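Sat 14:20. Reprocessing the chain from the morning session after the first attempt stalled halfway. Input below, unchanged.
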Amino acid sequence: MNSTCTCGAAIPDGAEFCPLCGRPLSEEARQAEAERDKAAIELSRRRAAGEEPQSRPIGFGNPVALRSSYLAGLLAAFLSSLPLLNFLCFVWYPATGFLSVYLYRRRTGESPTPREGARLGAMTGVLTSVISLVIGALNSLVSEGDFADVFRRQIKQMAVQEELQRDMLEQIENPTAVALIVLTILAMTLIATLGFSTAGGALGAKVLEDDRPPSSQ
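Finished this time. Tokens:
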């Protein structure tokens, strides 16, 4: 094997492909590349003939992506609703973003790019927020009453001065203040969920992507 490729790049010992242009350097590498090219041509022919439809872009209009994100989001919402475990949401959210990419790959056989993985993670984050909101609302209505009652109990348990506690309780009596508190909490939760889940999806796509050598130019 020559120490220099025809493109002029230096070839490391044992390399099967040129690190610059991707040209195969061994008979095994040439055969593997020929097989990949043949499979790609056959796939293009089948798609052109309508035998295998083009996969839809990753988004809520893609049933497989939606199903994968929903299952991952359902798991994240369930774990976050459990006592004590809900404090580990910074672990569940990235992990379930990662899981949505894994499920998508299992169902389609495709390897999403990091950008597509981030999109899957973002979908998981949105669905996690919606499911968590429904679970929280049902739990509040069934076992704890309205939001104002929840805030009153939490304020009374806070280790603050009595005067400050009284002022906070007075603010809770204002429906506008309660609405602002709820909206602020929802916005912060959505931002955190989206951020962690998106990062987990992008990381999942990067970690799970196929270890393919560079294609020849």
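The two ends are 20 Å apart (CA to CA).
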